[in-house]
Write a structure and sequence with these properties.
heterotrimer, A alpha/beta, B mainly alpha, C mainly alpha, A: alpha/beta, 28% strand, B: globular
Chain lengths: 232, 283, 341
């Protein structure tokens, strides 16, 4: 099977600034993978090189086997990769329902529809007609998750979903990630919150200075040792 | 009195069509299209040239389509590639385009003035509360209402309209959701410029066609856009209605000052509300 | 959403000491003065006549370039200040009976005061609206003078009654291209120097900081409204000086000089010349006038090539002649450094 996302020795840049120094990894269909590391090591740049926001100088990034050449922001989503960006990026002048519809991909049918998503997030159903920004941070995260699922992606990319959320809401995020994975959707989780990583991923890679410096599987892993790896 | 009121509404209607196009383009690309007045002029001339073959209503449609194509090209070859350049650069380029289009109109149609006849069924006067009034002016007013309603329906009720509204607020967030923002951009700028062409064609039977016919009205629609709050349709509709009345009554009661009145109105609004009538979105 | 618009500034090397910089200024100024004084004997009368007009409109371009540099704003209406200076001095000189020197002083003060009032209104609105506002004001003022019958002659303009001498200079020699060229050259050199000094002053640096990031400047505690108003007033004053000199030179004023196309052309001169350095718009103006003088065969169809040239410059080389000069001088210095090892 072709990997949902595959990076081969990717070097990525913002203008002249060299951020990723040869990143390689692959996410197979249905896999749950976490990318961890401190702030500023290039985790979000991995996402941004899928979006064309960071420029890929050398190496190849593939989505569903297709090499990305000068991707536009919408390329990844059209190839089945839904991204929940850092900061959620709720469109403020649209209602909650409109924000959800924005994520729909008319060509791709699957389990997720407006109904199933509103059933999963009752709060969004209650307030479907209010502006997206009328929600709290945690509710906005749910909206961003629901919006990403609307496209029935083959892989869901979550960039720092726990950022700024209360622990109880982080638990909700973990539950939803489990439900998503149960549908056979692959997950790439970019996180610093290790308890979320432990619950939502099977495999991880640790990033430092624009490289993946170690990889391993969650099973039987000593979290304390991992903590030491990424702690400041 | 009623005549001035109607004249004001008609002129306000033209301003609504023109400034809606400006607002559409500004919303998506954050650029004020300085070539918009030249597109209005071009629309009138296109209508003039094709009306002999396709009739007036066909000419109206042709002007919209022709200028939409110009708009799509403008987005594809100017706004999109220069997306990350300072807005001043893009603004100056649209000014350069204004010079080019104005000159092209002179090259193709010459400097003499032309007139376009209104459609045969709408040439005469009609009785409005006991006063005869040219019926074609009412047609222009109706056209403006239809255009504004259709535009809002398109933006509010269709999926592509949803995409356009989303992209106008946050083009990156919209793209990440899989919306082809390049296509949305081309479409929105196309419709925006098409509206300028439509306004020009609709206005053509009201006045003489000259290469500089767009200069005065585009200034007024800039004023409308600023008073309305730059990115707001509602604000610019209110401002257009206001300015239309001011121009119409001013022309009768203060003819020597009409050209200063829009500026006085604008200064007054800006002193009270620096971001315009509906200016919450700016700042 | 970024509302403030600005062109990229070529960053200058900060390595050279202020003394060597002062020396370089001195060399350039002396060179410019020498060229100014010698040009009337070296160049054809036509080139001199065109160039002295270019330098008058160069002040208008300098005003447009100055406000762009120091606030990132594009003015499509600076011909208003150019033209109003001509009208106010012309009206005062012709109808008030004041001595010309006093008429000039009062005229300039009036124009600057009006510019301050206008600036206080339009600097309240967001930057994006600025271009549209200046254009609208320009058209309104043009129409006002165009329609005003009576003494100012409406669309025809009017001839100004000038005395035999102005500031001790015979009016006839003031109106000869050769003399005016030298006067324009010297005033331009002094003005460019003054603007360069302004840029290095505290206020100049503050306005640049506000241009780059108004929010940050405000956060640090600077008022961002008044410095922008001052920038507008200075830029209007520059245009007014140009308008005054032009009016004295021609002895005539008409609405044509305050039309919006004059503003647009000044904007083009400033952009083609580049606004990063004060001399840029002047160079742009000289180029504009000298080229226009050579392409008279275009007749009425000058807008098409001008618009095309403008688009090409902005798309390919948006820093203009200043950017080009910077590029060349950096190349030369780089080559020299390599030669010296």
């Amino acid at each position: 099977m072709t990997a949902c996302i595959r990076f081969d020795d990717v070097h990525a840049y913002y203008g002249g600034a060299h951020i990723l120094h040869g990143v390689s990894f692959a996410i197979e269909p249905g896999e749950r993978v976490a990318l961890i590391g401190r702030n500023g090591v290039g985790k979000t740049t991995v996402v941004n090189s899928l979006l064309g926001i960071a420029r890929i100088g050398s190496g190849v990034a593939r989505i569903a086997g297709r090499a990305l050449k000068n991707p536009r922001t919408f390329t990844a989503a059209q190839l089945g990769i839904a991204i929940v960006p850092q900061g959620r990026m709720i469109v403020p002048n649209l209602t909650i329902e409109e924000n959800l519809i924005l994520g729909a991909a008319p060509g791709r049918k699957g389990y997720w529809t407006l109904e199933t998503i509103l059933a999963l997030f009752p709060i969004l159903k209650e307030r479907a007609r209010s502006p997206g920004t009328a929600l709290s941070g945690g509710q906005q995260q749910m909206l961003a998750l629901g919006r990403a699922l609307m496209g029935n992606p083959t892989c869901l990319v979550l960039d720092e979903p726990s950022e700024g959320l209360a622990p109880v809401i982080v638990d909700d995020v973990a539950d939803i990630a489990a439900k998503v994975a149960a549908q056979g959707t692959a997950i790439l989780l970019i996180e610093q919150n290790l308890s979320l990583v432990r619950r939502a991923a099977d495999r991880f890679g640790v990033m430092a200075k624009g490289r993946i410096v170690s990889e391993g599987s969650m099973a039987g892993l000593d979290i304390a040792a991992l903590h030491a790896h990424i702690a400041i | 009195m009623i005549i001035q009121l109607l004249n004001g509404l008609v002129y306000g209607g033209l301003l609504v069509i023109l400034s809606s196009g400006l607002v559409l383009i500004f919303g998506l690309r954050q650029v004020v299209n300085f070539a918009h007045g030249a597109f209005y002029t071009l629309g009138a001339y296109v209508a003039l040239s094709v009306s002999a073959f396709v009739g007036f209503w066909g000419a109206l449609a042709a002007a919209f389509v022709a200028l939409s194509v110009v708009g799509i090209a403008l987005d594809r070859f100017c706004f999109r590639p220069l997306q990350n350049r300072p807005h001043a650069v893009v603004l100056i380029i649209t000014f350069g385009l204004f010079l080019i289009v104005t000159d092209l109109v002179q090259l193709v149609w010459g400097r003499e003035s032309y007139s376009l006849l209104p459609p045969p069924d709408f040439t005469g006067p009609v009785d409005v509360f006991g006063t005869p009034y040219p019926v074609y002016r009412l047609v222009v007013l109706a056209l403006a209402v239809v255009a504004a309603v259709a535009l809002q329906a398109w933006l509010r009720l269709t999926r592509i309209g949803l995409h356009a509204r989303a992209a106008a607020t946050d083009i990156v967030a919209t793209g990440i959701q899989g919306v082809n923002t390049d296509r949305v951009g081309a479409l929105v700028v196309g419709v925006g410029c098409g509206l300028a062409g439509l306004a020009g064609a609709a206005a053509a039977p009201l006045l003489a066609l000259t290469p500089s016919m767009g200069d005065a009205i585009i200034i007024d629609s800039f004023v409308v856009m600023v008073i309305g709050g730059l990115g707001s349709f509602g604000g610019s509709i209110v401002a257009a209605a206001l300015l239309g009345q001011i121009q119409a009554f001013g022309a009768v009661y203060m003819p020597s000052l009409t050209t200063l009145l829009p500026f006085v109105l604008m200064a007054a609004v800006l002193v009270i509300r620096p971001t315009g009538l509906a200016g919450a979105r700016i700042s | 959403m970024v509302l403030e618009s600005s062109l990229p500034l070529p960053t200058r090397q900060a390595s050279d000491s202020s003394r060597s910089r002062a020396a370089r200024w001195l060399v350039w100024s002396v060179l410019a003065v020498v060229v100014t004084v010698l040009a009337p004997t070296l160049c054809s009368a036509r080139v001199i006549a065109v160039s002295s007009q270019a330098l008058m409109f160069g002040f208008l371009a300098m005003g447009t370039g100055f406000i762009h540099k120091h606030s990132g704003l594009l003015s499509f209406g600076h011909a208003v200040w150019f033209g109003l200076a001509g009208y106010s001095v012309g009206i005062l000189a012709t109808f008030s009976g004041l001595p010309i020197e006093l008429a000039i002083a009062i005229g300039l003060v009036l124009v600057v005061a009006l510019a301050a009032l206008v600036a206080m209104v339009i600097m309240r609105s967001p930057g994006i609206a600025f271009s549209m506002l200046t254009l609208a004001i320009n058209v309104a003022v043009f129409e006002l003078f165009n329609r005003m019958r009576g003494a100012t002659g409406g669309a025809d303009g009017f001839s100004i009654a000038l005395p035999e001498t102005i500031f001790g200079v015979p009016t006839t020699s003031l109106q000869s291209p050769q003399t005016m060229f030298v006067i324009m050259g010297i005033t331009t050199i002094v003005t460019v120097g003054a603007l360069t000094l302004f840029e290095r002053s505290h206020l100049g640096q503050l306005t640049l900081a506000i241009r780059e990031n108004p929010e940050r400047a405000r956060f640090i505690g600077y008022d961002i409204y008044w410095p922008r108003v001052i920038v507008f007033v200075i830029s209007a004053a520059l245009a007014a000086i140009g308008g005054l000199l032009f009016t004295l030179y021609t002895g005539f004023v008409s609405p044509e000089v305050l039309g919006f196309m004059t503003s647009g052309q000044a904007m083009i001169m400033a952009m083609v010349g580049g606004t990063a350095a004060a001399w840029g718009p002047v160079a742009g103006a000289l180029m504009f006038f000298l080229v226009r003088d050579r392409v008279t065969f275009l007749g009425d169809h000058w807008m098409l090539p001008l618009g095309s040239a403008l688009i090409v410059v902005m798309a390919v080389w948006p820093t203009g002649l200043v950017g080009a000069a910077d590029f060349v001088s950096r190349r030369i210095r780089g080559a020299a450094r390599r030669l010296h090892g």
